[in-house]
Amino acid sequence: MAVITPSACVDAIAAVIATVPNSGQVHKFRRVMRDEVSVKARLWDPVNSRMCGWMISPAAANTAITERNPGHAGIGVKGGGNNFTTFQFTIEGYFTLDDANGSEATWRDLVWAVADEFNAYGALNISGVSHQLPCDVEQFGFVMLAGWGLLHYARIGIGFRGRTRPNP
After folding, report:
1. Host domain of residue 59
2. CATH number assigned to the domain comprising residue 99
3. What's the CA gap between 114 and 92, in Å, rounded?
4. How many other CB atoms sit within 10 Å of the CB of residue 97?
5. Helical segments of 3-161, H only
6. For every residue of 32-61, which 3-state class applies, written as one string?
7. Of 91, 113, 124, 163, which is least surrounded by CB within 10 A?
8. What pLDDT, in 10s, does the model give residues 24-79?
9. Can you tell me whether residue 162 is helix, strand or coil?
């Protein structure tokens, strides 16, 4: 029986974001940006000539919640297991701020397009997944990066539940 892993979840999340038109760069982990050069290297979207990028990381709270059910081998004996774990992830998005051209409306629609793309699936094709939580836009606003520039920012949350130990 297949088991769910955080890496498989992140790979699937990145693949879905990449299918959304004009989604920009997608990183499978949170990238460090300490200056203008690193911000532009990680977020510049050459196709649309703007900053647009996404970073996927474990959620800050309730990262991995495990439910243990009957079915283990016994006391003091390793084996079996009927564990289901919900892995939760944060998808952070960044976008060029251009008030004169209504960038907030463009960003709002792109953020919703990403969240809605996840919600279009009953569950992504992730080995071991038994249930996909709804994808929610948790935060929408602005962020100052590396003391360099103000950008649009959004935080999206999603989770996947599945067996984390094979059940004999």
Report:
1. 6-163
2. 3.30.2000.10
3. 11
4. 18
5. 6-19, 36-43, 103-119
6. CCCCHHHHHHHHEECCCCEEEEEEEEECCC
7. 113
8. 999 999 999 999 999 999 999 999 999 999 999 999 999 999 998 887 777 788 77
9. strand
